[in-house]
Amino acid sequence: KLQGQVRCLKDQDLFALGLYHFSDQADKLSAMQLEAREQDAVRFQGLARLDFIRERIHRDLQTRAEVLADGDLEALGACPVSIQPVKLNALAEQKTVDSDGNSASNKLFPGR
Fold it and tell me: SS3 of 19, please?
């Protein structure tokens, strides 16, 4: 039941949730979601993260945008819809270069 609800958790939050006993995870997840909504209200122009994606990101790009870091998501949402595909591809390309400037596999969007 919880698997569908955890897909938008950050990696560190998902890891922390996994450290709890199964019987405690539902309550902990509820607390994490409440905290995330409070943080999102400031971060995403008063919208929850998923609402921001639905309202500010082109419909065809929403699934790909869900995995973006908060700052990248905000930058994408600030772009006009007509430019968002180009911006999203640029963000994906940035993720394919490691800290030494070497090309790395694109884990953000496999198959690209």
Answer: coil
What does residue 103 show for φ and ψ, rounded to 5 degrees?
Answer: -65, 135
Rounded Cα gap, residues 68 and 22, in angstroms: 28
Please answer whether residues 101 and 94 qualify as being in contact, where contact means their C-beta atoms are separated by less than 8 angstroms: no
Residue 66 in 3-state DSSP?
coil
Least confident of 42-46, 75-79, 82-86, 93-97: 93-97
CA contacts within 13 A on the Cβ side of 52: 26
Measure Cα distances from 55 to 5, 52, 91, 108 in Å: 20, 5, 20, 22
- pTM for the structure as a whole: 0.56
The answer to whether 106 and 80 are in contact (CB under 8 A) is no
Name the helix (H) or strand (E) containing 63: helix 62-65
Distance CA 105, CA 112 (A): 9
